[in-house]
Design a protein that fits this description.
The chain has about 325 residues and is of the alpha/beta class. The chain has ten helices and 15 strands. The strands form two sheets. The protein has a nine-stranded mixed β-sheet. The radius of gyration is 20 Å and the shape is globular.
Length: about 325
């Protein structure tokens, strides 16, 4: 049996993680990055079959590869994914799919014509989040009325080995910023509850961070079934905070990060049914990698997170941007 050979495009933090994971799962790994220092760093972690500094050189070896991971900055996602798909290579595309919904159209057409693409909104594979989704779907809190998503984490703490000013998150041109990068939480809102009717959003840069992207986002999403969802994202908070809270007519469910636990309360008091999780963060990335290898091997025909899911997220982001420009609620069509 042929050993899968995975090409990683972009060897920043998440690209190196993917390289390590696919190598640990028994694959050959090659890497492309225009920065030779990042290729050298990746090569210190594991045995890399080929190293390339541009996409054309990498794809000239397309016949050797079983699949491609696109983990470059979002500005390059569509172009690099399309180039791989046109060569018949399955693609694991890091989130977000692109910078806006319209630019994803070539990928949608490619998938309609049979191309294989898995989108890496990795929190979908995170056991505590999956548990919370089960509680919602089984009606544990009753009819839903309010959900709150919070992500607050100072950007300088994300990659302590490099200046945050050099991280793509600091660059609007490369597709950084809280709204795009932390669209994880918009994806989870859609995964849990579906598409809202209307969106109101405030997006801005209010901290002293030396970046030209947005560092704070506040969203209110309004659903036809009386559910209201609020999302807060910022790049300056300390201590870091991530949590999801879902309240219904019969109780409240919470998914807390660090420590990782899900708890359910259905009385007026601080009485919680609690399930703790002893899983490393890398487990969700391994879950994505395993599903991608199933696609590569032909064992799975439909990915669990699709380009259509990614375009829907970007349509909501586009509505958020329009709300920021207009100062008004925006209908999701």
């Amino acid at each position: 049996m042929r050993v899968p050979h995975i090409l990683i495009l972009g060897t920043g933090s998440v690209g190196r993680r993917h390289a390590r994971n696919f190598h640990a799962l028994g694959c050959h790994v090659s890497c492309m990055d225009p920065r030779s220092d990042r290729l050298e760093e990746a090569g210190r972690d594991l045995s890399i079959k080929h190293q390339f500094t541009n996409l054309e050189a990498a794809l000239s070896h397309a016949g050797e590869f079983s699949g491609v991971v696109v983990s470059s900055p979002p500005t390059f996602h569509v172009q690099q994914s399309q180039a791989a798909l046109e060569l018949g290579l399955p693609v694991l595309l890091e989130k977000p799919a692109s910078v806006d919904a319209r630019s994803c159209e070539p990928l949608r057409r490619g998938v309609q014509q049979g191309a294989k693409l898995l989108l890496g909104y990795t929190y979908r594979w995170w056991p505590p989040v999956r548990k919370l989704k089960t509680l919602i779907e089984t009606g544990a809190v009753g009819p839903l009325r309010h959900a709150r998503f919070v992500m607050s984490a100072h950007l300088a703490d994300w990659h302590p080995w490099e200046r945050y000013q050099d991280f793509f998150m600091a660059s609007r041109e490369l597709g950084g910023g809280a709204l795009l990068d932390e669209s994880h939480f918009i994806d989870l809102m859609l995964w849990f509850f579906g598409i809202p009717e209307r969106i109101f959003a405030r997006i801005g840069k209010i901290s002293d961070l030396e970046i030209d992207t947005d560092d704070v986002v506040d969203i209110v999403a309004i659903y036809s079934n009386r559910l209201r969802v609020t999302i807060h994202l910022d790049l300056f908070g300390r201590p870091h905070e991530k949590q999801i809270v879902v309240a219904g007519e019969k109780g409240t469910a919470q998914c807390l990060f660090s420590p990782d636990l899900v708890r359910l309360g259905r009385t007026p008091h601080q009485e919680w049914e609690t399930e703790s999780f002893s899983v490393e963060r890398n487990e969700m990335f391994l879950g994505v990698a395993r599903e991608f290898l199933e696609m590569v091997d032909g064992k799975r025909s439909r990915p669990s997170c699709t380009i259509i899911d990614g375009m829907t997220v970007l349509e909501v982001l586009d509505a958020c941007r329009e709300s920021q420009r207009s100062g008004c609620e925006v209908a999701i069509t």
